[in-house]
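Consider the following assembly input.
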Amino acid sequence: MTDPILLTPGPLTTRIETRRAMLRDWGSRDPAFIALTAELRARLLAVAQGGATHACVPLQGSGTFIVEATLATLLRPGDKLLVLANGAYGERIAAITRRMGRAVEVLRWPEDRPVEPGRVAAALAADPGLTHVALVHCETTTGLLNPLAEVAAVVAAAGRRLLLDAMSSFGAIGIDLRSLPVTAVMASSNKCLEGVPGIGFALIERTVLAAAEGVSPSVSLDLHAQWRGLEKDGQWRFTPPVQVVAALVEALRLLEAEGGPPARLARYAENCRTLLAGMRRLGFSLYLEDALQAPIIATFRMPEARPLRFAEFYDALAARGFLIYPGKLTQAETFRIGCIGAIGRRDMERLLAAVEAVLGEMATA
Ligand SMILES: *Cc1c(COP(=O)(O)O)cnc(C)c1O
């Protein structure tokens, strides 16, 4: 049996070279693994041109762990975070901050509307107590792309610090830290970088990170301490997921060989165009306006004329080798199909043929 194609926001379909890189036992204190960690950190910084200004701090765990760790490390008692929320991941940032006992304010938009820089500027002007702003670059809840450059400019003009959840965009949608004023970029191994799950990482302005000693109320999520450890002897403080590191380094080499983020974005954009055109032909409509859709993951409405039960639709596609993703919306009956991972236009065309066959089957059932 061949492996299914994962049309999800991650974990997703990876290349065989990436999975093969895991077929080895690495000693976590051995020079070979120390060199691998150094290559990992340098390559992650290079993806966002952050080498001159930022430090890369990897952390064991999923993406949420690095979000929590970054907030814990950078938000001091007395600081106040403004979260810009138009989906579940913005709300998660607010929930984490609240649980940590740090002050947080949430500015909300509907799930199908982008963050508006003008409202952000007004909120920052109205409350001088706000010190940091959190933005989700691509809201994976819907697949909406928020206006990063415009929001970053507004936050910088107001003299505040921007924390960016770039979990589902990093590696594909360009983030250039030489020109973009962002204090911290957070992402993980298993989305557009096409690695396997198990590592989150933050690229943090070095001056800010250096001043964050003892801020984190957590030992294992303290990114200042994690960074100091890595700088001291190149080693992780606690057991690193060695195979995940090896896979991510291989995935980063493959990203470079592909042509970097611009080439990856072009491939994902072609996947997305193929998917959207085909799904529309089959009677599905896109949840978002086209202009707001990032080529990462697309949310489709269930057809009103012929509402499908998601579980049946999922099982029928899974039986044909394609794993899709449930919707995450509070308001509408939807499902999602990812455009990212080691997949191309031909895979999307095969998926569309499978969707068409399933629809035919369900119509005659
Ligand atoms: C995937 C994702 C996360 C982290 O989710 P995990 O399940 O913890 O990996 C955070 N923010 C966004 C925007 C994401 O897409």
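Residues 9, 62-64, 67, 89, 136, 140, 165, 167-168, 188 surround pyridoxal-5'-phosphate (CB under 6 Å). Ask yourself how this observation constrains the way the partners meet.
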